Every structure is written in C-alpha cells, then in structure tokens.
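ok here's the first one, seq then struct tokens
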Amino acid sequence: MTRFRNHSSPALIGMTVLVALTLSGCAGLPGTTASSGSDAQFQPSWDQDRSLAVEYAAGVGDWWTPPLQGSVICGVADGVALLMEPRPDSGGAVPEAHDRSAVVGIRMADNEELWRIDEAACTSDESVGDAVYVAIGPYRGDSVIERVVIATGERTPKSTALDRLELSGVITELEDVTLLTAYQGPGSRTILALDGTIRWQLTELGWLSRCEYLDGGPIAAPGDARLGCNVDEGYALVDTASGEVVLGPNPLRGDTIVTWARDGYLVYERGRPTAQGEWTVTAEQFDLEGNALDTVTYAPMAATSPARHGMLLPLDEVAAAESVTGISPTGDALLRLSARGRELALSGTKVDVSGYLLAVSSGGEVLLFQSSTALTFIDAQGTTLSELQSKDSDVRVVNGYLVKRAHQLGASVLLPAPPS
C-alpha cells in the first residue's frame, strides 16, 4: 500500500522501508540462518516520496546549492527546488518555521526563478511528492496553509486562517483530507485535518513527539485507520475521521517500548542481549481499538525502526521480519542479517559496506548506505555504484532526491548523473 509521507521528526529518508542497523549488532542473533528471509514477501505501507530515485543507478552528479546561502530546501520535483529564502534582514541566517520570507521555485539546471510567494514558510517535513504544504501570511495574524506544486507554483488552499502558525510536518495526504502537525504559538503541537477548511483539530494530547498513519492493514475497511501518536513518554490512538482520541494517552514506564504496525501496535520491555549476543522479547499485541491480542516472542531488530523511517508492517509480519533489515516498497526482502553479517536477501551476497541502510529505490534496484564519513550506493547484486565522502548526518530523501538539510554549511541536493 503506497501513501504519502509522514514526518514530524528528522530521521531518514524516504521511503525508507528500512532499518538502521550496524554490523556491530549482528553476532548471535536468533533466526538468522543463511536462508532466513530470502523468500519472504511482506505487505508494507510506506511513504511514497521517500523512495530513492532510480536515476541514481546510473551514477551521481554534483551537489546543487541554492543561490542564496541560508535557504531551506522544502521540496524537489521535475528539476525544480522549492526554497524558503532567508529573511533579507537576517544576514543569511537559516530561517525557522515561525519566520516568514519568500518561498520560491528555482530551476536547478540554470538557477532561474520560476515563481515566488512572499511572506511564507515551509520545511522539507511538509513535502509530499511533487508539492509542499506552505504557511502563507503573517505569523501573528491570519496565516493559511496551501498546497503548492513545486514545478509550477500552482496553489490550492487547504485551511482557513490560523494565528501564530508554524508547520511541523505532514503526517499523511489522503484523497479527501491531509493530516499534519503544527504549532500555534509556544507549547504543544496540534494535529490538523485539512480539506480546504479545518475539518478537525486536536490539541489535548500534550507534548507530541510524532504520529504515524496506521491504515488498518491489507484488508482494512473504511474507517479503520488511526493515528498512532507518541506523547509524553506514552502513546495514544486517534480516529482519523473525527479526531476523537480512541485510546490513551497511556504511559510507558521504564524501558517499555511501543512499536506501531499497520493494524495495531506492540508493547514490550526493551531487554538486553545475552552474553552470546542473543536478544529476544515477548511483546503484547493490540489492535487499533486497544484490545489485547496474542503475545509474540522475537528479536525486535527490524520492528523497532520501520515506523521511524516511514514503513509499517501488519502485526502478523513484524516478528517474521526480525532478521530482515531492508524491504522494498513492493514488499520484497532486500537485506537481512545472518551469521556472516549483512547479506542481500535474494543472492546471499555479503554486504561489506560500512554504515546503515538509509534508503532504497522503489524497485529495489539501488540501496543507499550512510556512515559517519561516506554515502555509498550499491545495486541489487552488491556492486558499488557510487561512493561520496560526506560527514553530514542530516541527509534525507525528499521525493527521490538526496537532500542535505539547511544548517550552517548550507543545504544542497545531490543530482543524479546527467544522461550520457
């Protein structure tokens, strides 16, 4: 099931149906035989604009940098970057989400400005495919949220007026409604459901870390979807149609963890590995109404990370993915852990690339790894396609493109190699 993106937190990219694991944690893991996961087929939901562009298979080009230093790259599509420029009086300082400045569309091939919106704000957390959700209007006053097409600047109103609006991430974009989070002045984040007006908003959850869109699973009925939200060291379930809090907030004590699934969630104690490196937990499973189901014992290596990277599995597949650390958008196992370390699931080829799996292309043709010093692209056979020296940790995929987010050193977009 494909969907548009969640993101309230900076973690990776994009679709990222993946798990960030290093080789140091591989020894002695249960269930990691040579054939484990090689023929597995999963049913993930994933963030469509987070999969890596397949064009990187032909090589990488240059890092494109915005004309004005300090610009924020909010989205990229069709050779155009949507930027929030620094305020004219800021001395080139990177603007914040509560600032208002010009939002512009820049053609990356020649830096030509294609369109401009004044007194606006955005971040890459509001990117959804070929568009970005933008706050337009004064921060103190009547700001509205509009969906802006990156290549053309075409604008679609999505909300009525809001005071002190600061966007903080689109959760998901559905056919008739968009769910996102925003601040309205200092304090806790608000969840907004937008359909041209504000269909509903929820502010009662307290301190909100992030929310995942739980679609109900492969055979979901209309109305099954929920938001699974991490709040105040606890969690809550929210009805996506009404904004009603279905469950919670429930506290999480000590080392207790909640892991979201398409059709429910799991709760377990973090635990610690044995002297042999084995690490299993017994997790309680719950449906989207908070009803207790079965318990399951497994090694939660893959289960703790997919939701953080935009991919969720059904409950009955979470334990089966315990040794699988990379899944394609179509549900094919790409990368797994074995006694030898990391292997490509289909061929069994050992992967000797340092760092963790950051992203994959939609068909699994390209896998991207990030270490503290490099970005490495390999193909499905394990052949290195490109390797770039990079010490920048704040790298993510935005609509297929690899983007370094705005910071003191400046934002940039890694372009695929030009056609030969």
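and now the second one, same deal
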Amino acid sequence: MQTKRAVTTAMALAVVLLAPGCGGGDDGSVGDLVGGSLGEVEGIEHVVVVPNGPLTIVVGEAKGLLTGSEAADGREHVAPEGTEWVPLDWRLGIDDDLDPLQRTLMGDPSQRTTLELVAGVVTTTLGDAPGSTSTPAESRTGGPVYVIVATDSARVVEVTFDGVTASLDLGTGQVAGERAEALTDLAPPVSAVCPPLAGKRVTADVACTYTVATVPYLSGEGWAEDGWTVGQVETRIDSFERAGATYDVRAATDSSGFDGSTTGSTVVDERLTSLVTRFFVDGTPTRLDIARTLTGLRADGRGPEDATAELSTTVELD
C-alpha cells in the first residue's frame, strides 16, 4: 500500500538567528536556538540515510558559554544553570555504494529534509537539509546552530523526509524509524540479457537488456509500504523481416510492464533504433513482460512500403 505524500514545510532559519530571551546574560531557556557563525562544527558524526542521500549530522561538545566568535550575532550567550549549549551541524552527501539507478529513482531535489532536536520534553526546529548536493548555498538553511538543553536530558534528532521520520539517538548513535532499515539495506538491482523477443510471422535481430530494482521511495510517487519495483528495458533493433521483405526500423514504442500490466511505461532515452523505457509497480511482481512495437520502411523485397511488427518476451522473477 502506498503512503500518501505529505510534504513538510520547514521553518527557514535566518542567517543570523537569535531566539527571544537569549542575550549577554543567562536569561535564556531550554529549547532556545542561536545561529552559528560560518564554519564547521567539530564533533561526533552520525549518518541518517534519506532518499536524497546520506545526511551526516555533527554533534559538537556541549558548553556553558557560547562566545561571540561562535554566534552569528557576535554576542556571548551564557547557558542558564543546569543547562548547556549543544552545537549541531549537518550536510547531505552522495552514497557511492548505492547503485546509480536506485540513486536516480529515489532522489527528489524538490523534497526538503527537516530536522528537529528533541531534548527531554522540549522540541526545537533546527532547519532543513538541501534537496541535493548541488543545491546552491544561498538557498540552503540550517547549521551550524546552538541549542540550549537540560544537562541531564536525553537528546534525539528527528529527521523527516516527505512525511516519514527517522530518529537519531545522540547518546547511542542508533537510528530508528519505519523506513530506516529499508533505506540502509537495499538489495542491488538485477540486470541480465533478455530472453529472445519473438512475434507472429516476423523475425528480427534484437539486442536487449533489462534491469529490475526495488526501492522504498520513488521520486514523484512517494513512499510505498512494500516497496516499489522498477523495471528498465533497453533495446536496439535496426530492422525486421516480415513476409519476405526487410524493413528498416523508423520508430519503436513500448508496452512493457509487470504481471500483464502495460500501462505507465515512460521513455528514458531514445536514439535512432535504440530505446530505453522504465515502468514501476507498488509491491513485488512475479513476472516481467517486455514488449516492443516497431514501425519500419521497406528496404528490400516485396511488400507494403510501411509495416509494423510486435515483439515480446517474458522473464520470471524470483
């Protein structure tokens, strides 16, 4: 069952952000946030994987005094008694170990990843991560930031992407959430040469490969409870023979799908006699159906000037 898309609107942090009540004295309160000056936070790094890539969250050493050089407003901020400032920063990266097709299928630059710090019973909105590693710096919001938390409080960073939240326990480094394992334990795609494509009273020399991939999130569609299965088929067919005549292929269309479904196929790439198409289904299908319809112009032999041919094959999926 597909989870309905729920786009979360993140609170944008100003370049200089100072929560009310935080000044030169110790008059701040738990949950107050101060924007940090430019520079990276040094500390313990944790990784939370989201569909757009691995999000590295850096937690610096807590301190009682935030200096003017650390705060974006250039002022000192003293944490009240029993509290401390926690430095936080984050950055989006690229998962080089993930198959490029799966990375393409899941990546959705229009989605922003929101972050919140839950310390005890107090929740503070930290900001959001960019939609991709190529997002312009001026359009990014977020760290480094400093948050006042109770000294003895448990601390969890909640990371939300398109309505689904993963929780990072800063004490243990463990990540929990309904999609956490699905994103970190993806089975690699399966690719192979297609079985021979055949049609009625038609023959053709076909070069064909297919790939089947599974992802928990699909760009433009959202999350799927049982995962999305995506098929991609690439063919090259230069000509075909029918009724003693040879036809040069001028166009090819696709009606491939899973388990008999022939809707939803889209063209990924089309060049001369080569065609790459992609299609998907919510869940786990048992059969891949590959089908191409060719339109050709007679090059040799007797017969109609123009002709069409349908070629197909099937692949049983494990």
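notes on #2: The longest strand covers residues 222-242. Confidence is low (pLDDT under 50) at residues 1-24.
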